[in-house]
């Protein structure tokens, strides 16, 4: 493709990427979206490392190499950033849980599938899980995070109904309280975010399989 020089009237070849540069200019929506995603990733790492309450807007801006005022061009507060992180986590894991339950496998296989989903979320959603571990009570006090309790209640309902179905079918012990059983499973999985190191001896998938063995078979010899 060619363009015409205003001075000579002759056509000149368009420089490679010239059109793309115009389309992805400084203020383009695509570039703004990339910057926003980059800021979310940086903030997520800081929240996971320092904790949400201990992380300031200035910390995030410094990590991004920008002024604090520039951060407000994308987010009105650090609460908006963590809101995006937590919403993304719950949307993804709840969709995965529903798909596992809708697959219609027996309760034991379904519980194993739910455990795998939870462990596989440790690495991509490390920040969200860490914030939930450390700052759940703090965030619950804000109206904008009312969905956290609603989402957690919905997740608990999925697990409890599956455990209860397993009891009815004789797959799980009848003397166990389904709600308490779920909460013990949930907490032992999520607390792993504190010590699980990506790239270590076990990946999240292997960790999940080991947990399933302990959960269903115990540590006693049979």
UniProtKB/TrEMBL annotation:
Residues 33-93 form the HTH tetR-type domain. Residues 56-75 bind DNA. GO terms for molecular function: DNA-binding transcription factor activity; transcription cis-regulatory region binding. Transmembrane segments: none annotated. InterPro entries: Homeodomain-like_sf, HTH-type_TetR-like_transc_reg, HTH_TetR, KstR2_TetR_C, Tet_transcr_reg_TetR-rel_C_sf. Keywords: DNA-binding, Repressor, Transcription, Transcription regulation. This is TetR/AcrR family transcriptional regulator. SUPFAM superfamilies: Homeodomain-like (SSF46689), Tetracyclin repressor-like, C-terminal domain (SSF48498). Residues 1-32 are annotated as: Disordered.
């Amino acid at each position: 493709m060619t363009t015409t020089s205003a001075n000579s009237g002759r056509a000149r070849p368009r420089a490679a990427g010239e059109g793309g540069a115009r389309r992805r200019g400084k203020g383009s929506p695509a570039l703004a979206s990339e910057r926003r995603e980059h800021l979310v990733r940086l903030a997520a790492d800081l929240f996971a490392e320092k904790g949400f309450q201990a992380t300031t807007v200035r910390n995030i801006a410094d990590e991004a190499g920008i002024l604090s005022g520039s951060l407000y061009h994308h987010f009105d507060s650090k609460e908006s950033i963590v809101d995006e992180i937590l919403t993304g986590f719950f949307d993804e894991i709840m969709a995965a849980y529903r798909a596992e339950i809708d697959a219609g496998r027996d309760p034991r296989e379904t519980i194993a599938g739910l455990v795998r989903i939870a462990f596989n979320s440790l690495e991509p959603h490390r920040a969200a899980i860490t914030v939930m571990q450390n700052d759940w009570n703090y965030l619950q006090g804000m109206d904008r995070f009312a969905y956290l309790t609603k989402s957690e209640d919905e997740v608990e309902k999925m697990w409890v109904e599956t455990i209860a179905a397993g009891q009815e079918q004789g797959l799980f012990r009848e003397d166990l309280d389904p709600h308490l059983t779920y909460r013990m499973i949930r907490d032992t999985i999520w607390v792993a975010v504190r010590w699980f190191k990506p790239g270590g001896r076990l990946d999240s998938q292997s960790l999940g399989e080991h947990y399933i063995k302990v959960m269903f078979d115990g540590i006693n010899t049979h």
